[in-house]
């Protein structure tokens, strides 16, 4: 069953991107005559709003599109504000705190070094002689970092 534009009565197809209203569809060129956005500018919210009114009602109230755009901008701003609030809350939650007093006033003391490694000392001694035993002190940096709380003085590792 073919559909026709409510305004100009031309046959509509998917390639003409008709705008659907409560009482039927309107071709894109007729919708543009009444300030409805073109295909590249139309949003899902605008299409949903258009389905809630008749074409005749929209034609007699062309300011509706401005209201719809304003509502969409307000919703977008509200969503962005909620996202920013959630990001800040997550950032605050993940902030490093003292396990004793909960303060965030913390200083880094440094990485914890591993001690003497007997296996490295033996390997170094075999390769270079007695001086190679010093290779046992060439340990990797530890994975833990030591911190000190500036509020209560507690030292802790993370």
Question: Could you characterize what this model shows?
Answer:
It comes from Ligilactobacillus agilis DSM 20509. There is one protein chain. The protein is built from five helices and seven strands. The protein has helices spanning 28-33, 44-51, 55-60, 64-93, 118-128; strands spanning 3-4, 11-12, 19-21, 24-26, 106-113, 141-149, 155-157. The strands form three sheets. A three-stranded antiparallel β-sheet has the order 5-6-7, with no helix packed on it. Strands 1-2 form a two-stranded antiparallel sheet. A two-stranded antiparallel ribbon has the order 3-4. A hairpin with a 2-residue loop joins strand 3 and strand 4 (24-26). The chain is elongated. The two termini are 69 Å apart.
Brief account:
With 158 residues, the chain is α+β, with helices and mostly antiparallel strands. Helices cover 39% and strands 19% of the residues.
Please specify the SSE layout and strand pairing:
Layout: E1 3-4, E2 11-12, E3 19-21, E4 24-26, H1 28-33, H2 44-51, H3 55-60, H4 64-93, E5 106-113, H5 118-128, E6 141-149, E7 155-157
């Amino acid at each position: 069953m073919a559909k026709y534009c409510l305004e100009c009565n031309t046959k509509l197809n998917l390639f003409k991107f008709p705008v659907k209203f409560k009482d039927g569809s309107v071709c894109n060129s007729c919708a543009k005559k009444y300030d409805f956005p073109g295909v590249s500018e139309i949003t899902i919210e605008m299409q949903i709003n258009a389905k809630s009114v008749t074409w005749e009602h929209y034609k007699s109230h062309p300011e509706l599109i401005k209201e719809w755009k304003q509502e969409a901008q307000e919703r977008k701003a509200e969503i962005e504000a909620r996202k920013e609030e959630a990001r800040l809350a997550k950032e605050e939650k993940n902030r490093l705190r003292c396990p004793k007093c909960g303060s965030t006033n913390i200083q880094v003391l440094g990485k914890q070094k591993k001690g003497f490694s007997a296996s490295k000392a033996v390997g170094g001694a075999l390769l270079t002689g007695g001086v190679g035993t010093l290779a046992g002190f060439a340990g990797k940096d530890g994975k833990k970092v030591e911190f000190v709380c500036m509020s209560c003085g507690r030292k802790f590792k993370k």
